[in-house]
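Notes, p. 3: input format for complexes.
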Amino acid sequence: EAHVAAVEALNPRLNAFITTTPELALEQARAADDARAKGEAPALAGIPIAMKDLFCTEGVRTTAGSKILEPFVPPYESTVSGKLKAAGAVMLGKANLDEFAMGSSNITSGYGPVENPWQRADGAKLVPGGSSGGSAAAVAARMAMGATGTDTGGSIRQPAAFSGIAGIKPTYGRCSRFGIIAFASSLDQAGPMARTVEDCAILLREMSGFDPRDSTSAERAVPDFRAACERGVKGLRIGIPAEYRVEGMPREIEKLWQDGIDWLKREGAEIVDVSLPHTKYGLPVYYIVAPAEASSNLARYDGVRFGARVEGKDLIDLYERTRAAGFGEEVKRRIMIGTYVLSAGYYDAYYLKAQKVRALILRDFQEAFGKVDALLTPTAPSAAFALGEKMDDPVTMYLNDVFTVPASLAGVPGMSVPAGLDAAGLPLGLQVIGRHFDEETVFAVSSVLE
Ligand code: GLN
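Output follows (450 residues plus glutamine):
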């Protein structure tokens, strides 16, 4: 009830939820109470969470932040949201996001931007990051105890950093993608966002596991991530990748990175300089591969199969009018880039080349992980910026993802840990990247940093 009341009080200002589900939440909470009374409480019984509105939820409107899906009420439940429900979690509502998860500041949502609950002294309204900005704001403002996010190129880690919370993108394949509205299928991963690293560990355990309905879901046992938080870092080798020292990085972020190194050393880790030489190709590769896959995935929104329809004089006209009216600017830009790089004549020069460089980026990580157990980097090159800043030029916005896209391209797990504040008092995050399916080391290192 306290969380339902907090959502009611704060959401009109922060716009963290597109849809709130207070009756459902209270009903689920009562069921959790009953289970507890019988001594049968599942792991998350009664824990109130926000569900990113990219997860299909049976009987509850799902928008993906896009007007083109309105009104879409899924007839089925995504695997991850279904697992959380089965574990007793209580859904407070569907969290706002960039349209189809394309963005880094939540301004591309068809349902209005989210406001970061953190405030700057000059009173400017700040973005919460994106695309899981509603999830981040809901957790940071104490509306929810945890949230689901999805991360294709940073959409869990960057909003976690901007909002002073923790968030992990697990290994590609750790969580099922079934029922998550697709953006770029070879990159999309679900993960938890919460106030602490340990809370993320608890949530991730319930979200993970093999699912025969997702052909890229991994047949791997789900470890006890929470126990891993207690392991410490004694004897671990932590790599510092030289290429992440980019020009123009604020001094406070450099300093926080150095603080992180010092904390890990003090706890007994060995710090090793490593090189990921293809890092500089991460952004260009990502902004070819992700739009290419998106242009294909978004072909299904044609006004016939789902959601909104604008009638036309014939079928092609109906498609065109529906897509022109239903998609926002950023989504249209991605579809155009994607269809361009996939078109005959350009495919070899762009898409195929990008896939080859993607393999080199993966090899960089594999070589580094021959020498070290985890990597430490900043999560983002800046703290949360003001609504309205960086918004005239899409490329400036894309630069925000410089530290997060390489791990997405390689499919390795990455976590953002709330590790400090900048001079303006805004939160900054450190990122811990681990080997494929070694989230346990990521949790162990992250626990020391928070
Ligand atoms: N900011 C990146 C993009 O706009 C990442 C988004 C995401 O991870 N979903 O594509």
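Residues 101-104, 131, 151-155, 183, 290, 401 surround glutamine (CB under 6 Å).
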